[in-house]
Specification:
single chain, 357 residues, alpha+beta, Rossmann fold, OB fold (Dihydrolipoamide Acetyltransferase, E2P), 11 helices, 28% helix, binds adenosine-5'-triphosphate, cell membrane, ATP hydrolysis activity, ABC_transporter-like_CS
Amino acid sequence: MSTPLIDLVNVSKAFDKNLVLDELNLSIKENEFMTLLGPSGCGKTTTLRIIGGFEKPDTGTVFFDGKDITEISPNKRSLNTVFQKYALFSHMNIEENIAFGLKIKGKSKAYIKDKVRYALKLVNLDGFEKRSVASLSGGQQQRIAIARAIVNEPKVLLLDEPLGALDLKLRQDMQYELIRLKNELGITFVYVTHDQEEALTMSDTVVVMNQGYIQQMGSPEDIYNEPENAFVADFIGDSNIIDSLMIEDKLVEILGTRFSCVDTGFGRNRPVDVVIRPEDIELWEPGKGTMEGTVSHLIFKGVHYEMEVMAGGYEWLVHSTNCYPVGTKVSIHVDPFNIQIMKKPESEDEEAVGVDE
Ligand SMILES: Nc1ncnc2c1ncn2[C@@H]1O[C@H](COP(=O)(O)OP(=O)(O)OP(=O)(O)O)[C@@H](O)[C@H]1O
């Protein structure tokens, strides 16, 4: 196996006795688009700041290209960071903003001019050299912040919620731009967000964090289709997460012979979480599915309808392109292959119970 470009080994960090990262291990490959995803306060930014050198771990080691850089200052690391707040210098024009780092490094005027033009082209703002910061929109300012970072030709770009301040449409446009940019530059991106859709759209690898621990790490498809625990299932997309004991008899019916643990009393001896995505629930005519129910809520979401169906003592979240008005009698059907069964966590390193062949 090749050496990872960045390697965090047993990294712990506490602020005022509040343990934020607990023996975190994380390897980032060269040219990878890795996203740290998790709820507010889970330790994403702290991890990024430790990689960038803005924060020192209490214990543990940070390796870059196999070398220990734990004690190396941020400006001596081959990394650049883009923050949510663009932090552009308002008294400088765009060219001066982008050139700032290169001037400090003592690069020649011709070199700087060339690099600034190249960086502006990459972020689709050719010819913006003489514009003032105040004349740019939020999205344009963020692109300048990115240009200012990439002009230094870092091996790694660290991005801390860079699109967080933009409106939805602009954010989506910028997501595609960032993917294009990363592919053109051929460098490593480490991206922090609490927006699961953003993480799934952009990343090669998503790291789902909670309370300083990595809950799951994998491709967007793995994280979405094979969540390892109820936290991940709940955080990534909408889910029905049901305690097996609530629907024990129905569970056997739905799963049939596929999940023999239930038949052998696994559900009774050791409760499990049953996770079903709302788009995997089909609504059939009454009497034809597994559980009879009634539509209790209906919202139009643009591409689909979101419904809640009261059935078997549980309110099921269902997505469908068909509209079933409130009060409609329906029968729920779920393909057993779309059901995830997970042990309830006993400790941090609990695993999913595999029901896949
Ligand atoms: N410099 C600091 N001093 C004290 N506490 C801090 C400091 N930096 C972070 N923390 C605390 O550490 C915890 C993790 O913060 P961190 O910023 O890493 O989380 P996050 O996952 O990035 O959250 P958010 O999405 O809200 O930025 C939080 O409880 C935060 O208050």
